[in-house]
From TrEMBL:
Transmembrane segments: none annotated. The keyword Calcium does not apply. InterPro entries: Acyl_transf_WS/DGAT (IPR014292), O-acyltransferase_WSD1-like (IPR045034), O-acyltransferase_WSD1_C (IPR009721), O-acyltransferase_WSD1_N (IPR004255). It comes from Antrihabitans stalagmiti. Residues 315-460 form the O-acyltransferase WSD1 C-terminal domain. This is Diacylglycerol O-acyltransferase. The keyword Ion transport does not apply. Residues 1-20 are annotated as: Disordered. Keywords: Acyltransferase, Glycerol metabolism, Lipid biosynthesis, Lipid metabolism, Transferase. Belongs to the long-chain O-acyltransferase family. It is an enzyme of class 2 (transferase). It comes from the Bacteria.
Amino acid sequence: MVTRLTPQDASFYASESSSSPMHIGSLAIVQNADGTLDYEKLLEIVDRRLFLVPRYRQKVREVPLGLARPVWVDASDFDITYHIRRSALPKPGSDEQLHELVARLMSRPLDRTLPLWEMYLVEGLSDNRCAIFTKSHSALVDGEEALEIGHVILDSSNTPREVADDLWHPGAEPSDAGLAIRAVGELVSRPGDGVDIAKRAVGSVAGAATSVAGSFGRFAAGLHPSASTAPPSPLNATISRNRRLDVAKTDLEDYRRIRAHFGCSINDAVLGVVTGALRNWLLSRGEPITGYTAIRAFVPMSVYGTEPGMGDLLGSRLSSFLIDLPVGEPNPSIRLSHIAHATEAHGRDSRSVTARTLVRLSGFAPASLHAMSVRAASGYGQRTFNLLITNAPGPQVPMYIGGARMLEMYPVSPLLKDQALSIGLTSYDGRVYYGLNADRDLMSDVDVITSLLYESMEELLDVCA
């Protein structure tokens, strides 16, 4: 089957660079004391369920002479053992060693001649644990029609659910001449497509990507709605292709306490914690801070309302917005008040899209939501905001992979151009997990931010007490 990439997919595919690979990462920590989950078991699970995410067996073919956008075609030589790989840490492997491995894997671009995803089973972790790290290209996952593979490998019980037999057979790959003839035919029947081709020919990828943000509604501004350029920040500089990863895990109940005390949302509480950590990180670097210093964050997929059985963080409406985080304010209560007022104004003024279509199959949607978040953020100019913060909810019940219980789940969002840090959050089974993906050279102190997240949380909880 041959399907043309949408303008949004094509813009992600074309805008990728060696220093900014555009893949979404997801790290799951699994309890595997009895060896329930091994490489052969994982291979079997993914192989049997891959038909549920058909894009994962397709690759991108470019059209000769750039006559049209590239197309998705079935990979006739698809080899699942190439995409699902096995790795091991020297026993007993530490979390720090795992994070270093994942950072290196995030640094490597995907092979563009094959389906754009990889999955790693990492063995040897201490305490009888293993890890599964998945990375999928942003062009592969749109969060609406094409979902992330995490949807299909997770189960809500330790007995893997049955799926129908997969009778997939790859379609014949078109020749270059066939792709060119088809593209010319489309240009004749739809001459307006030639305008898009001309734009891409002169490098107008950003213009095409703007339509991505449009699908999520226009965004209310934060504390300074008239500003169009983000304030200067050490978070913005030319980045390398090398990465660092650090993580934090917090209790969802603590955010509920903050919400109850301040009368804000859980999302506000999350942003309050992040803002306090960023403030103290700037101070640790000796950066000049005044009462008006701010870091502008793009916060896609902010959630409103509740959905039965999915916990506080999952609602029926999803949207995105820019907000200036008040890192210059020393009082944590006032910081949170500023944030709550800004997000409340956003909630009144913005449009949103439904999330119900995303919460299906196993009910675990975070990776697809993070992919949607990156798409929305990429539609803005590189100087529009300093930092990307993605917050995607997950189920508040245990999930399993091949009968082994998933303990933790960390998102790893890509770094956008000239942005040295991205922060992703996922809630799962009563905890909120942070994944901090950072440029290796510019953010050698990313672990400082992680430590300060805990301090910022304690600061807000002390106010509640």
